[in-house]
């Protein structure tokens, strides 16, 4: 897998996490722990994307 392919894959996962966060936030009783975990995962992906893009 090339670096560009890896970046695109990570961007897809980033978007999926964003969608999950949005879906959880609009629920009547959102799970704050789940939202926090999803945001942490999303930030980790963003950092990895930035690192790969800088290479």
TrEMBL record:
UniProt superkingdom: Bacteria
Coiled coil stretches, renumbered: 7-55
Annotated keywords: Coiled coil
Keyword Coiled coil: yes
Name of this protein: DUF465 domain-containing protein
